[in-house]
Task: inverse folding
């Protein structure tokens, strides 16, 4: 081999070595960047799952709050009923008693008699429910 061929072989070997080294280093850098990006994606996906769970929990809490608020509003309206409503129910019950007695005089009024007595009993039950509330307001 001549001196020029030996120098060319050395240069070619160094060039191949430098090319291999540059590719190896570039691959390491690209792999490291991909690994970091993949780690961030995994962390973000875990965070997004946590965020989804928290949003679901918040939605459930809001629904429960709405239910409680609706229940509160019904209770508040019911608590406003007092002695006037109780007296009205008692008056209704008395008029239903009179109607039941009137219908019982007719032979065809048996069903009306039963219905009227059932409505009277319901009105008396509602008046009884309002009575303790009126006593608590007085105390």
Result:
């Amino acid at each position: 081999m001549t001196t020029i061929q030996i120098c060319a072989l050395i240069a070619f070997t160094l060039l191949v070595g430098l090319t291999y080294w540059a590719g190896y280093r570039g691959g390491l850098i690209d792999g490291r960047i991909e690994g970091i990006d993949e780690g961030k994606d995994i962390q973000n996906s875990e965070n997004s799952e946590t965020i989804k769970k928290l949003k679901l929990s918040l939605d459930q809490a809001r629904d429960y709050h709405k239910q409680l608020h609706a229940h509160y509003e019904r209770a508040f309206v019911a608590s406003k009923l007092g002695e006037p409503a109780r007296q009205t129910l008692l008056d209704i019950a008395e008029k239903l008693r009179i109607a039941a007695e009137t219908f019982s005089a007719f032979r065809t009024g048996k069903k009306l008699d039963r219905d009227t007595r059932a409505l009277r009993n319901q009105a008396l039950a509602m008046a009884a429910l309002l009575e303790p509330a009126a006593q608590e307001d007085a105390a």
Notes: The chain is about 95% helix and 0% strand.
